[in-house]
Design a protein that fits this description.
Blueprint: H1 3-9, E1 20-21, H2 28-36, E2 42-43, H3 46-52, H4 62-75, E3 80-83, H5 92-102, E4 106-109, E5 112-113, E6 116-117, H6 120-134, E7 139-144, H7 154-166, E8 171-174, H8 182-188, E9 194-196, H9 205-211, E10 215-217, H10 221-235
Parallel strand pairs: 1-10, 2-3, 3-4, 4-7, 7-8, 9-10
Antiparallel strand pairs: 5-6
């Protein structure tokens, strides 16, 4: 079984309350920590990788992002999915080639740009081209940015998700969806649902799974917590 097949299989036949937890490595060292802890797969966060490279979120040149993903992939044996934002303006075939060259088994693709939602039908057509170019070699996680863009009606997220699933997306990610609407999203969306881990003190991964999440990702949250811990250590070094 290939790593891509292994990764896809991890998303199916999961019991309620047992979501797939995918820590987000921002560099090779953090990836090794997560793999050594026993997580079966990882999912890079674009914002966390950007911070590790000295960029603001959304400002990483494509070549640097793919190189960072390749370093993470080389550092571990488990499957790695890559957040490649909106695809960097690359044609679907080129985007797929770059992801496969980096060793990624999946990708996260956004449906907004600069805070503005893309036309969902045009985006679905683009996702279909990505799926056609990738075949079964990549697991496509289609981000649904309605909540992040201030559209609070869950039905708008469900409508977009249906278009993306029909286009071949393996999973949809209604980023920023409040935990209380997850049962409604679960009832209206076919296939796996990605949910971002909330801030500290929010629902646990198991609780999110019980509400409908298939998998949990962390965005830049783990990188930011690590940076805070490092600042505390450094503060103790000062005379």
């Amino acid at each position: 079984m290939s790593k891509a097949e292994m990764f896809r299989a991890l998303h199916h036949h999961r019991a309620p309350g047992d979501p797939l937890v995918l820590p987000g490595p921002w560099d090779a060292a953090s990836a090794q920590v997560f793999a050594e802890a026993g997580f079966p797969a990882l999912a890079t966060p674009s914002a966390g990788v950007a911070a590790s490279l000295g960029y603001e979120d959304g400002q990483v040149p494509a070549d640097e992002m793919f190189a960072a993903v390749a370093r993470i992939v080389r550092a571990v044996d488990v499957p790695v999915s890559a957040d490649v934002e909106g695809g960097y303006g690359l044609a679907p075939k080129v985007l797929v080639e770059r992801l496969l060259e980096a060793g990624a088994v999946g990708c996260n693709l956004e449906d907004s740009e600069s805070g503005v939602l893309k036309d969902p039908h045009a985006h679905a057509d683009w996702l279909a081209e990505v799926r056609d170019a990738a075949g079964d070699r990549l697991f496509v996680n289609a981000r649904v940015d309605t909540f992040a863009c201030g559209v609070t009606d869950p039905e708008r997220a469900i409508e977009r998700a249906a278009l993306y699933v029909a286009a071949g997306a393996d999973c949809v990610y209604p980023i920023g969806a409040p935990p209380e609407v997850l049962p409604l999203l679960r009832a209206g969306i076919q296939g796996p649902i990605n949910v971002g881990s909330p801030t500290e003190g929010g629902p646990t991964p198991a609780e999110l799974g019980a509400r409908g999440a298939t998998r949990i990702t962390f965005g830049p949250g783990l990188q930011r917590r690590a940076a805070r811990a490092l600042r505390e250590i450094v503060a103790g070094l000062r005379p």
